[in-house]
Structures are given as structure tokens and as C-alpha cells.
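Good morning C.,

I know you're traveling, so I'll keep this short. The sequence:
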Amino acid sequence: MKVFITGAAGFIGKSTVRELVQNGHQVLGLARSDANVAAITEAGGEPHKGSLEDVESLKSGAKAADAVIHLAFIHDFSNLERSNQVDRAAIAAIGEALTGTGKPFISSSGTLGMPPGAMSTEDTQPLRNMGTFSERVKAADMVLDLAKDNVRSMLVRFAPTVHGKGDGGFVPHLIDMSRGRGSVLYTGDGSSRWPAVHRDDATVLLRLALEKGTAGSVYNAVAEQGVSMKDIMTLIGKQLDLPVKGVSVEEAAETMSFFAHAISMDGPTSSEKTQKELGWKSVQPGLLADMEANYF
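The C-alpha cells, ready to paste straight into the viewer:
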């Protein structure tokens, strides 16, 4: 298949381009800059000039391809409302281009918005009363609703820690904040758990969903069901030679802002259904081993 990918020059995107090309697919990657063009070309894809905010470029890319994988998101934590608005407009544009075609459309989401404490599965409904976290649920609903319009739409919920060399996500931010503060913080007793997945395992899942996934399905990109925040922070403290301590969410928020609330969320998540339906299995190193080898 010829696959149009938004976010093709990003951390997950470049790996997805390589995975698809190595398995016989062609890739058209959305590129908003010369650096994006170079990254997509180096990974084996064909650049498609445009941006997430240029809906016409999204429509033309979707129409030119046999499938779409939507990975791009504007990670501006100072204005997430706008980021979510842009995301929904992009999904609407892609959906318009794909309606009635039966083409696959995979969009990314996350596992953090699930009910806390209990093990979440692919069938767990996300919370819709969590402010910013719940805004992305609206986008997920839009994607899944496209199955009613003869689009093979699917949602892949990524663990909050998609890790690997070159990661620029949550864990590097936690490391940088700890280094700048001179101490490492977790909230409460540190028992909150985050699921995790290696980037290269996640991109295999995306390919399998493209090839085998069914319309209206949700798949969880989760290899480890839950790594405790205390274990993550203890490793950061060890590697940086900094003290590690538990504090209240309010105290953590004084220096961590949004991240204090994120690390306090207990979100164990299963991918058992995903593994069975797609024949997916994680083979890459776990989060703590990867951090120790590649993050410091």
C-alpha cells in the first residue's frame, strides 16, 4: 500500500516509515520544512509538502494514498486547547477525503485518560471529565465514528512512555527537570504506574493494524502494563546522583507544573486483546533497561 503519514519526520514517524518500507509498502510523509523533507527521504519515504494546519495538504495526501496513519500532534503544553483544535480539524479533513473509500485510517491517542487504578483494556472507555486530558477523547471519537462512513478507521492508544534512542517525550523532560532542580520527585508513595512501549515495537503494531486491523477497533501500544513512578524516578536519581523523594502533587506542581499531575496518574494498561487480534508481540528492551542504556 501507499501510506500517507502525518508526523512522518518525528520520533515514532521515522521508525514507522522504515518499518513500512522494509515490509513492501510505500510512504508519503507530510513535511512542513526542509529538515522534515530530509528526515523522511532518509527513512525511505517520499515527502509531501504541507502541515497539520494546512487542511488542503492533508486532503491531497489522503486522496493520493491507499491508507493514512495520523501521528502528528502539536505538543505545546502552554496552549493545549489550540493543539487539540488543530488535531480535530486535521482529522475532519482526512476523514472527508477518505469517506466512502474503505481505506484504512489509523490515528494515535494515549492511555493516560483511562479510569485510574484499575487495569485498562482496549474496551475501557476513557474519562470525559478530565479537562485537557479529555480533549483528545473528542478526536478519538471522530476517528472511530468514521467507520460508519465506510472508512477502515482504527485508534492506536500509545503508552505515555514510547521510549528508545532519540526520545524527546515525557521521560527526557523528567530527567531535565530533575537535573535543573537538583532533586528527583515522585508524588505520594510513588506507586502510580505508567505503561510503556519501545518505539520499534510500537511501529510494528502500526504496520500490523494497517495490514490486519478492523474498522472501529482500538489497539493498545503497550508492552509493559505498568512501571512504577518510584522505580522510574529512583533510576533517574541513581544516574544523576541526586536525592529522590516523595512529595504531594501540589508541591511537585510548583516546579513540574502539568507534569506533576501526569506522574500522579495510575494507569496500568493491558494489550492482551491487541496481541491476540494482530499477532503482535514486544521484543525490544523494557523502559528501565532502555533508560539506563540510552538516556543519560
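Safe travels,
E.
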